[in-house]
Design goal:
The protein has helices at 4-48, 75-87, and strands at residues 59-67, 70-73, 90-105, 108-121, 129-141, 147-157. The protein is α+β, with helices and mostly antiparallel strands. The chain has a single domain, classed as Nuclear Transport Factor 2, Chain: A, CATH 3.10.450.
Length: 163
């Protein structure tokens, strides 16, 4: 380069742009992670209310739900034929020890949730069902900028006895 001063200015400007882009990326990523966690929370709150009304908007139409080793089909099918009827048998459903880890990569997000859930049954309220659960989900950002579940896979087991 014939003009070292111009090179220095150009390098400095590019360095600032690069530094600014790096500084903004984590903030944008944190905002997207928070938006994904909000979708996870909305779904969790619906389950705790024992009411799936309106939850289909959280899922793409062609979503896939897998639960404890069984492919349940789309969320619409799962809500109508599995989750909804199951929730109608419960007197309560609560989550505790909840943790969520989210990684956003472009228009996709990958979530892992761990939790304990407790179910009260209408027919036997004295014997709650307690399970330790995990869910992994893939969400996609739609054209309107909303995150939706593309697929979700959950499983649970009885908690291990404390030593």
């Amino acid at each position: 380069m014939k003009n070292p001063a111009a090179f220095t200015v150009l390098a400095t400007v590019l360095g600032l742009v690069s530094t600014t882009a790096r500084a903004q990326a984590p903030a944008a990523s944190r905002a997207e992670e928070a938006a994904v966690k909000n979708v996870l929370r909305q779904y969790q709150q619906a389950i705790e209310k024992l009411d799936t009304t309106g939850t289909s908007r959280l899922f793409v139409a062609s979503s896939q739900v897998v639960e404890s080793g069984g492919v349940e089909g789309t969320y619409h099918h799962y809500a109508a034929h599995h989750l909804g009827p199951e929730l109608s048998e419960f007197s309560a459903f609560t989550f505790s020890d909840y943790k969520a880890a989210v990684q956003v990569d472009g228009p996709y997000a990958f979530a892992t949730e761990t939790y304990t859930y407790t179910i009260g049954l209408k027919k036997d309220a004295k014997t709650p069902i307690v399970r330790r659960g995990v869910a992994t989900s893939v969400l996609r950002k739609n054209a309107a900028g909303q995150w939706q579940f593309l697929s979700t896979h959950s499983s649970a087991r009885a908690p291990r006895p404390k030593k």
